[in-house]
Amino acid sequence: MPPRLAQIIVFASLLHGTAPTEGVSITFLANEGVMLSSGGDKVLIDALFQKYETGYAVPADSTQAVLAAARAPFDDVDLVLVTHRHGDHFHPAPVAAHLRANPRARLVTSKQVIDSLRGRLEPNAAIESRLLARTMAPGSRRREVIDGIGIELLGLPHGGRRHRAVEHLGYVVELGGRRVLHVGDTDITEAAFAPFRLDTARIDVALLPVWMVTSREGQRVIERWIRPRQVVAIHVGEGQERRATRDVAQALPGAITLVRSLETYRW
Question: Which of 155, 156, 206, 255 could form a disulfide with 186 if both were Cys (CB 3.0 to 4.6 A apart)?
Fold first, then answer.
């Protein structure tokens, strides 16, 4: 059976209203950048980056400035998660700026990403205590509760042989009674996902790259090894929004494609 379409309670920008306090809100930024929020808890995933290469989307300059400065609605973020160090998911300048502006935020990511920040942040104990290096071997997993937020780190390899040296993480974030999966640019094979048995983990929302949702291999992984209540396709290239939305709808009825920066859904 295809994943069931969850009821959409809110479809609005957080810049123009107050988020409800039950369930989880997912605010899309660009590429695979999102903010998860529930009550007073906020988590950024792959949200702090700059223009990378032609074809990759970025939020508006005003949105990027607000993110880097940790101003509303991106103030008081608890966790900053980064799947890997590629420029369409991470750039050291806005990450460092956000961490300086928001002294409560903790960065949870690979050692490669944290090493990329060296020289951007003052080397002091207060900053170092907020940089949590969690490189995971493929197939391994680790659960932690950080500042009251449960996260599970997944050792998901980056897709493509030429990226095998890239340290890559997936995350399951628990907020508002929901479990949200973010897989970054993972290898979409069954071999990569089978060790985690996410199909038994009650994934409420799976944030997946559009090519995973539209490929036969990816669909097998979704149906057999993830089985989320809702699939959300992200990482759509510039100028590909209409085609991607159509392809996702044809490939997996009930899935949602996020293409507009700052649109927010709630589950």
Answer: 156
